[in-house]
Design goal:
single chain; mainly alpha
Length: 210
């Protein structure tokens, strides 16, 4: 008789993906590493909260590598090792977002969902159609978008629509040089430009409904 479906474990849902601790670790260091391994599932949920599911694996890998390096080079951490690792996870998530911002010329669409910033802007059904059409051929439209948008509008638009970041994450990815409020204003300005018939024609997307 086949195993009940609810008990089947998918290959990518192993409880532990972290390796065994180095033999060079002291008993106290090994105990801290084992505590991290035992709580990997919860730590990965926290990583997703900071980095999104799409970027969970690289951020979690970088954070746990940093933690293991700390144990090997400096000894056990003071206090709760989980609290210490969460701080590393948060730092690595921020560094990962900055890396994405720096490599935005290499942007790829991430599905059909239209990512909206945490703001009360007015996005009409026609706007959603245009945004979806742009995302479907985003790489080809990058040179055109650069001509239509200011540098800040261009960065904010790409990080919103291609990477799904919100205003706080974009502000952090841009090293705090643009406040979350300014990020929202830049996105609104970019979307207003997309409502202009001439801009839509140059981009080769649907005109506004009459």
């Amino acid at each position: 008789m086949s195993e009940p479906k609810r008990w089947r474990k998918k290959p990518d849902q192993e409880l532990h993906t972290l390796g065994e601790p180095s033999p060079s670790l002291s008993p106290k260091e090994r105990k801290q590493w084992e505590k991290v391994r035992a709580n990997e599932k919860a730590l990965r949920r926290i990583t997703r909260a900071f980095a999104t599911a799409e970027h969970e694996n690289p951020v979690f890998a970088a954070a746990t590598k940093g933690f293991l390096t700390k144990l090997e080079n400096s000894g056990p951490v003071a206090g709760n090792p989980l609290t210490y690792l969460i701080k590393i996870i948060r730092r690595e998530a921020g560094a990962h977002r900055k890396k994405i911002a720096e490599e935005q010329a290499r942007v790829y669409p991430v599905g059909d969902d239209i990512h909206l910033l945490d703001t009360t802007d007015s996005v009409t059904p026609e706007d959603l159609v245009v945004l979806r059409e742009i995302k479907e051929s985003l790489k080809e439209k990058l040179p055109l978008l650069r001509k239509e948008f200011s540098e800040q509008e261009y960065k904010v638009f790409l990080l919103t629509e291609a990477e799904g970041m919100n205003s706080r994450e974009i502000s952090e990815a841009l090293d705090g040089t643009v406040s979350p409020g300014a990020v929202r204003q830049s996105l609104l300005a970019a979307r207003e430009k997309l409502k202009r018939p001439a801009v839509r024609a140059r981009l080769g997307v649907s005109p506004l409904a009459e």
